[in-house]
Each structure stands twice: as C-alpha cells, then as structure tokens.
Design a protein that fits this description.
With 132 residues, this protein is mainly alpha-helical. The protein has nine helices and no strands.
C-alpha cells in the first residue's frame, strides 16, 4: 500500500471531527476492497479507534494518524506488534514520523504477510463495544 504526498496533505484537518472524516475518506480511497462492505457509522468508529491507538503509539500529526489507521485496517489492527515492524517504529535514531515512512522500505514483505495473517476483524467490534 502506497500513500502519496497529495493524499497525505488531504489528511490534514482543522479539528477532531474533520480529522475523523478525513481519515475515513483516506481509508476508502486507499483500501476500497476492505472498506466496501463497512457501513459509514462503523467506518467512523474504526477511524476513532485507530486514531486513539495511533496517539497511544506516540503519533500526533494528522497525516501520521491517518497512515497508522490505514495500516491498522489494511494490514492488521495490531500490525505494530510484529517484531520487525516494532523494531522500525521503535528506532529512536529517526523522528517518529520518519519511522512511519520507513516501514515500507525497512520491513520485509514476509513480516507484512505475517502481520496480515493475524488480522482479527473482531478487534473493531470489541474495541467499539469497550468505547460505548
């Protein structure tokens, strides 16, 4: 999955509501297959849950939040727990935003496949229920 600079620029939002909406739009644009059967309110919930997780991971820039949520939806909600991915995200030799951009270059395809194989679609439902 590649997210271009023009897409990243569209992620920038003025407030939380606009951020959630922008993330939803980005998810639809970058992963039509995965989002095709998701109702709009469920997608909003997914975006909110993903944004919260991205913030827990230390991300704050809107474009970083959007990329993180897209990876959660496309690869796996717990993609960042895979050892190879966690190693890149934890590499303090680079700023956090740069680490996120380096994932595509530094994480082997096999690691992405392993992370995706552990995709649990029930995560979104469990987390949504815990929010409410």
């Amino acid at each position: 999955m590649i997210i271009r600079d023009t897409q990243i620029e569209s992620f920038i939002a003025a407030n939380e509501s606009e951020l959630v909406t922008a993330v939803c739009e980005a998810l639809i644009r970058t992963d039509r297959e995965r989002t095709a059967g998701i109702r709009p309110l469920r997608l909003l919930s997914i975006a909110k849950i993903g944004i919260a997780k991205a913030r827990e991971a230390g991300f704050s820039r809107p474009e970083d939040l959007a990329v993180y949520v897209a990876l959660m939806l496309h690869i796996s909600p717990d993609f960042a727990e895979h050892p190879a991915i966690a190693a890149v995200l934890g590499d303090t030799n680079f700023p956090l935003s740069e680490r996120l951009r380096q994932l595509a270059e530094r994480v082997p395809d096999a690691a992405w496949d392993e992370a995706e194989a552990k995709y649990d679609p029930q995560f979104w439902i469990k987390e949504s229920a815990a929010e409410g």
